[in-house]
Amino acid sequence: MWLKGDKVLEDTARYEIRNTDFKALITVKDAIRVDGGQIILQATNVAGTKSVPVMVKVLDRPGPPESIQISGVTSEKCSLAWAPPIHDGGSDISHYIIEKRETSRLAWTVVASDAVATMLKVTKLLEGNEYIFRIMAVNKYGVGEPLESAPVLMKNPFVVPGPPTYLEVTNVTKDSMTVSWHRPDSDGGSEIIGYILEKRDRTGIRWVKCNKRRITDLRLRVTGLAEDHEYEFRVSAENIAGIGEPSQITPYWKACDPMFKPGPPTNAHVVDTTKNSITAAWGKPIYDGGCEILGYIVEICKADEEEWAMVTPQTGLRVNRFEIKKLIEHQEYKLRVCALNKIGVGEPAAIPGTIKPEDKLEAPELDIDSELRKGIVVRAGSSIRINIPFKGRPTPEITWSREEGEFTDKVQIEKGINYTQLSIDYCDRNDAGKYILKLENSSGSKSAFVTVKVLDTPGPPQNLVVKEIRKDCAVLTWEPPANDGGAKIK
Predict the structure, then answer these.
(1) Residue 58: which residues within 8 A CB-CB, separation 6 or more?
(2) Where is the Ig-like domain positioned along the sequence (predicted)?
(3) What is the CATH number of domain 67-154?
(4) For 168-255, CATH number?
(5) What is the SS3 assignment for 17?
(6) Within 13 Å of residue 186, how many CA atoms lie on the same side as its CB?
(7) Cis check: omega of the bond before 262, within 30 degrees of 0
(8) Tens digit of pLDDT for each residue in 214-246?
(9) pLDDT at res. 478
(10) How far apart are CA 346 and CA 349, in angstroms?
(11) What single string gives the DSSP state of each residue in 362-381?
(12) Do the domains at 168-255 and 362-455 have one common CATH topology?
């Protein structure tokens, strides 16, 4: 009998088998490629079995390649690999033809027409499109049957990287700065191939690249900056999927020669105390570190401790005076003041000794300007306002009086914590005179006066006397009026 593999060949329309006592013949009609291979003649009798293999080679086009595999898929390329066909058609495989088509189309496009190896890298594909590939082996008898792949979608197997972190600006000069950063927490699944650093002038709105070539290091010296201009920076990482989100933006940095922390403030001293507060003041540092002073920080601690507490905002004060409240009466404290610029907090200036929150006794003091000391001149019907600031502890008692006698009903007196005001509306000549202010507390007293002149018609003459009365005449005598109306009697 005749065998091919494990299959016994039967007499059919294509297979004609003729066996005699001394001869065995098999005829294959219209032979095709699959008819090739090893055919075994097996003869058996009572004495045993004998097999004879016969190799049959059918000369034809090759069969389809085997085991197509697709790897390295990105948004625009992939790699194909396959095995040679089981049936080579009786002739060596000379090359392969690879074709592609989009699943949305029917037409095939040749990718390679003379590939010798059993692998190929396909490029210039369109992102987001789905492709099918087919491969055909070629021998001297023609092009074999194709092997088609499953559809494959062109997309990256990874994403863009995250933003770089910890941006830092150092080595600042008038025309350059060094910007450094840390790698992103996520590289997106693909190796980072470079960084893009951008800058923006405070006066501009556009971001401008600082590097013409791809940056592979984690720092860059940015040059060509305009002196005294302020810049902010951001950096983005790039991998094969593209450019990721930019980092957080740095603060503005001024292009100027190197800057340092400021020196200590000058003349730090206590201005005032109360039973639960201390007011301190100070001057600017002699050395500002080469940049603007952004503020001042005041710190306090108890005299018998070493732990300092900040009593101002971390961003600092913009003023040179500060009142520290909610302190313990008679508790001794230490105070110090530091200046702050964009580089950091400078050396502290300590106020000598210790300070106790306690009320101070202060004799009254009046603040009368030179114009008020010259006196007030108004026309009749006008208003008079005498406003006098003062200070003193405890708050002094305020007493107004008039040298010419009692106040008229029109006089109004206002008393504040640190000022007092005497007001008269629609004044006339009777409101003229010397107005006296007296301040008094347990520490002393203080007085001052303001002269008021009202321009009005004069008052009546005084002491009219009739003398030397005769039958046709008499002599009259009188004295000038007590109030001349603010002008000499003509």
Answers:
(1) 31, 32, 33, 34, 35, 36, 89, 90
(2) 364-453
(3) 2.60.40.10
(4) 2.60.40.10
(5) strand
(6) 11
(7) no
(8) 899 999 999 999 999 999 999 999 998 889 999
(9) 79
(10) 9
(11) EEEEE---HHHHT-EEEETT
(12) yes
Q: Which fold has domain 362-455?
A: Immunoglobulin-like (2.60.40)
Burial of 38 (0-12, 13-18, 19+ CB in 10 A): exposed
Two tokens at 405?
A: 């006698």
Considering the domain delimited by 265-355, tell me its CATH architecture.
Answer: Sandwich (2.60)
Q: What are phi and psi of 362, to 5 degrees?
A: -145, 125
Task: Please give the Cα distance from 307 to 309 (Å, whole number).
Answer: 7
- Residues 83 and 66: their CA atoms lie apart, in Å, by 5
Domain ranges of the chain: 2-56, 67-154, 168-255, 265-355, 362-455, 461-489
Q: Which tens digits make up the pLDDT trace of 24-50?
A: 887 778 777 677 777 887 778 888 888
| C-alpha distances out from residue 277 to 205, 270, 310, 332, 357, Å | 48, 11, 15, 12, 6
Nearest 5°: the CA angle 29, 50, 28 is 0
> Residue 34, SS3?
helix
Interval 318-377: pLDDT, tens: 999 999 999 998 899 999 999 999 889 999 999 999 999 988 888 899 888 888 888 999
